[in-house]
Automatic annotation (TrEMBL):
This is Carboxyvinyl-carboxyphosphonate phosphorylmutase. It holds the Pfam family PEP_mutase. CDD domains: ICL_PEPM (cd00377). It comes from Amycolatopsis deserti. Gene3D superfamilies: Phosphoenolpyruvate-binding domains. It comes from the Bacteria.
Length: 293
């Protein structure tokens, strides 16, 4: 398994180049990332939605800072051997200072970040807007210039298909980012059928948001993993599935307790303690401790 940042980045690049698309589950903390690794997935992801919820119990409305995202990512990197891709929001800084974002995530050991053109309003009823394509391209170019490791991935995200409902505009924006040096692009809210029509116009690997859930307003395309694979997507990002599953399971346990069920009767809703402990590799601790007895 890869362990150094360089090895993880090389492994991630190979996964993206492979014929089959990379299914990328989004962890929300170090323990979840260990579960992703144990399940056999070759890489994981940390998004600001999951980080804001798990760290602060707050919505993803732009409140999480760069250093908080870096710290959360570093904990995941240190807990697993997996390549870790991270949400870099809109870069946190203008082009002249975006080097600080890139260097901080590089130092944390992640394989790359995606940078978006969204100006705010995600996951809320507040109208969102996008920065101009020219301004976004400058950020991408500055981020590419800033990296010290050329294998560190700079992925450009455009929300034009989501905010403006304009897939052609999204493709045009992504094309300009590829021209500015982006290694790959991220195109949320493009359904698989539409992606299949425009995929040949994007000269870079494409990541899509492949979670299927009941988003208010129908913002998510609802295409299946197989449909996205057939459409030519290279990375199938599941940014919500794990934290959504955790919330449902914890809520089910709390509701059962509120209804008067005994803890001993909740085995269908939770792991046993010893099984849970095995997931954190207590055996490795025991072997290490035995050396000093």
């Amino acid at each position: 398994m890869p362990s150094t940042p360089a090895q993880r980045r090389a492994a991630f690049a190979e996964l993206v180049r492979s014929p089959a698309p990379l299914v990328l589950p989004g962890a929300y903390d170090a323990f979840t990332a260990k579960l992703v690794e144990r399940a056999g997935f070759p890489a994981t992801y940390l998004g600001s939605f999951a980080a804001a919820a798990s760290t602060f119990g707050e919505p993803d409305v732009g409140l999480i800072t760069m250093t908080e995202m870096v710290d959360a990512a570093r904990r995941i990197v240190e807990a697993t051997e997996l390549p870790v891709l991270v949400d870099g929001e809109n870069g946190f800084y203008e082009p002249e200072n975006i080097w600080r974002t890139v260097r901080a995530f590089e130092a944390a050991g992640v394989v790359g970040i995606h940078i978006e053109d969204n100006l705010g309003g995600k996951h809320t009823s507040r109208p969102a807007g996008l920065m101009s394509p020219e301004r976004m391209a400058k950020r991408i170019r500055a981020a590419v210039d800033a990296r010290t490791d050329p294998t560190f991935q700079i992925i450009a995200r455009s929300d034009a298909a989501w905010v403006y409902r304009d897939i052609d505009d999204a493709v045009s924006r992504l094309q300009s980012c590829v021209a500015a040096g982006a290694d790959a692009v991220f195109a949320p809210a493009i359904p698989a059928a539409k992606l299949k029509q425009v995929r040949s116009r994007i000269d870079a690997p494409v990541m899509v948001a492949a979670d299927v859930f009941d988003a208010p307003g129908g913002d998510r395309p609802g295409s299946t993993l197989a449909e996205y694979a057939d459409a030519g997507a290279d990375i199938l990002l599941l940014w919500y599935s794990l934290i959504g599953a955790a919330a449902k399971s914890v809520t089910a346990v709390l509701d059962a307790l509120k209804e008067g069920r005994e803890v001993a009767d909740l085995g269908d809703l939770m792991l046993g303690q010893h099984t849970f402990e095995s997931l954190m590799d207590y055996a490795a601790y025991e072997r290490r401790a035995a050396r000093y007895q």
